[in-house]
Design a protein that fits this description.
The chain is of the alpha/beta class and 294 residues long. The chain has one domain: Chloramphenicol Acetyltransferase (2-Layer Sandwich). Helix content is 31%, strand content 20%. A hairpin with a 2-residue loop joins strand 5 and strand 6. It is globular and about 45 Å long.
């Protein structure tokens, strides 16, 4: 494997403090982009990430001409005739994200070709065999994949897209209003991007080391810009409004939200119990709710 390029996200080991931010959009709009430009929802998501990274790297003074960012991407390898079956059929790919692309449409086509090629290759199947041998569940795969990637210099970050349920879930009879994904960072991987869909929405969760990537909120702005850019490329009506900033609280079937005292409390926990985060660690949040510290 070729070494990953030298990027600001990988130049020193991460510390114990984290930053987290998110951007949310409508899943139907992402699907509309896919239907217009081709590929899969995952291809569209990877293109949005690639375009955002291009903006971020250029702002940091990195020359993007001819540059590919190497990402570890957990994927589903479930056959089309096995849709709806239970059980985990997941694997991982190493994908080159072409941040050198000047055009969003060309970027999507390059990523579409790369993901199709890797899915058809022995790389994804080999990763699947390893996960089946170990009996990993998807959250464990993400954690173990992040740990494995962090121990070497062959990838720059982990990017994962997790399709979630499109009906509202409940906990103790109370609705789960929203879902925000987190991918662990560690060792020399100071940035991770997780995407998850739930109840008609898609959220991009950006995790970063507190000191190595102190301005991760600017990258979330880049994700927003990339969403709008790809929407405009696809000719999606209302592309400037693709991004949802505020949490729209609605009850079942779109009705009023339950009163705060009736809503279930949701506690975010790290997916990695062994993560290098001490008792005094800080997590800074930004997105659809006021900043919080945990």
């Amino acid at each position: 494997l070729d070494p990953a390029p030298d990027l600001p996200y990988n130049r020193r080991a991460v510390g114990v403090n984290r930053r987290y931010t998110w951007v949310r959009t409508r899943l139907d709009d992402v699907k509309a982009i896919k239907d217009e430009l081709g590929g899969t929802v995952n291809d569209v998501v990877l293109t949005i990430v690639t375009r955002a990274l291009r903006r971020d790297l250029e702002r940091r003074g990195v020359e993007t001409g001819g540059l590919d960012v190497k990402a570890f991407v957990p994927i589903s390898v479930r056959a089309d005739d096995a849709r709806g079956e239970t059980g985990n059929q997941v694997a991982g790919m190493l994908i080159r994200l072409p941040v050198s692309c000047r055009d969003a449409g060309d970027c999507l086509q390059r990523i579409r070709f790369a993901t199709a090629r890797e899915k058809a290759s022995g790389q994804a199947i080999g990763a699947q065999a390893l996960t089946e041998l170990a009996g990993f569940a998807p959250p464990t795969l993400l954690v173990q994949g992040a740990r494995l990637a962090a121990r070497q210099r062959f990838v720059n970050l982990v990017v994962t897209n997790v399709p979630g349920p499109q009906h509202r879930l409940e906990c103790a009879g109370r609705p789960l209003l929203d879902m925000f994904p987190v991918v662990p960072v560690g060792k020399n991987l100071a940035l991770g991007i997780a995407i998850a869909s739930y109840h008609g929405r898609m959220a991009f969760g950006l995790s970063a080391d507190f000191d190595v990537v102190p301005d991760v909120e600017r990258l979330s702005d880049d994700v927003e810009a990339a969403l709008r850019e790809l929407g405009e490329t696809a000719g999606i009506a209302g592309a400037p409004d693709l991004v949802e900033r505020e949490l729209e609280e609605t009850g079942p079937a779109g009705g009023p939200a339950p009163a705060p005292e009736e809503q279930a409390e949701v506690v975010a926990e790290s997916a990695d119990p062994g993560a290098e985060q001490g008792a005094g660690a800080e997590v800074h949040w930004r997105g659809g709710s006021p900043a919080r510290r945990a």
